[in-house]
Design goal:
binds zinc ion; zinc; zinc ion binding; zinc-finger; DnaK_N; Znf_C4-type_bac
Amino acid sequence: MAKPADTRTAGRKPVAKATRSAAETEKIRAALAARRDELRAEYDQTLSEITELQRDRLTDSAGDDQADTGTKTLEREQEISLANSILERITQVERALERLDEGGYGWCERCGNPIPVERLAAFPSATLCVTCKQLEERR
Ligand SMILES: [Zn+2]
C-alpha cells in the first residue's frame, strides 16, 4: 500500500539529479555578499580619488603645462573607467544574489552541474563550470 508521501510525489517531474544543499546556498550567498561589500568599498575609494584628482585639476592647473594637464585628464579618465567597471561588477554580483534566491544561479549553462562554491566566490559572474570553461577556451 502506498503511503500518502508516495502519492504526492507521483506524477511530478523528477528532481534534477544535481541539487545544492541549503548550507551550500548560504555559503554562496555569504561569498557574494562579501564580494559586493568589497567592491562597494573599492568603488567608494575610487570615487574619492576621482574627487581628489578633480580638485587638484581645479586648484593647481594654473601653473601646469599642457603635458601635466593631459596626464591629469588621463588619470581622471582611467579612474572613471575603473569606477564604471567596479559598478558593473557590483551589478553582476547583485544580479547573482537575485538569481540565487530564485534558484537559477550557480549552475553550469553547458552541462547543468553545480558550479563549485569556490569558483562562484572568485568569479561571481561565472556561468560555466571549470571543465566546460576549459573546453570552451580550447575551441
Ligand atoms: Zn559544465
